[in-house]
């Protein structure tokens, strides 16, 4: 797992790259716009229900002000990662161009249809696994820290997989006999990367950078492993 800190350091070091900044701006903008839309929908929906039963419509704003931040905290990592999936190819290409030019020449950019399908599958996995974790978190609620550890562990596994696959999908059929192969990054490294990114997503402002940093670091882990396995460069 010693490769994970190095991958994260390189990812942070490339934050000033214009290609990375463009993806960062787009992913943050779309993610925040989605939550703004959620907030507006919750407010107007509550206002209609509250007024229908004869209560003061101002309560809708109070309830929305409580619910939306909670929803953002619970759903941010899921929504942000799903949004990033649409632009993942740009992040991976930027890392390849700067650090792995030989491997960049072998990469196969993903068509939009496959990016969309990957995003939907990732979103479905994230929602499904987090829903399955709810009963376990509920059982451990009396421990205070138990639920947080459950969700951190679940999302570390999910994020580690998604972030490594973003890069691997560009290379999985471009080596050997052309058949798709299993991601070469060790499970321990994927889990460690996922845990770091999941932790970042719990910190205000750092959570905005976390998906892009994770995608870039995941790319380093994949391409470093390909260099070791195939002696590229």
- Into which percentage range does the β-strand content fall? under 5%
Query: Uncertain segments of ≥5 residues (pLDDT<50)?
Result: none
Please describe the biggest sheet, giving its number of strands, its sense, and whether it closes into a barrel. none
Number of domains: 1
Provide the structure class: mainly alpha
Mean pLDDT: 80
Q: Helix share of residues? A: over 70%
* H and E string: HHHHHHHHH
Give the total of beta strands: 0
How many helix segments?
Answer: 9
Membrane topology: Multi-pass membrane protein
Keywords: Membrane, Transmembrane, Transmembrane helix
Subcellular location: Membrane
Transmembrane segments: 28-50, 62-88, 132-160, 191-217
Description of the structure:
The protein is mainly alpha-helical. The chain has one domain (3-226). It has helices at residues 3-13, 18-52, 58-85, 88-99, 101-104, 112-139, 146-168, 187-200, 206-230. Helix 3 packs parallel to helix 9 (206-230) and helix 7 packs across helix 8. Keywords: Membrane, Transmembrane, Transmembrane helix. It is a multi-pass membrane protein. The chain crosses the membrane at residues 28-50, 62-88, 132-160, 191-217. Its main location: membrane.
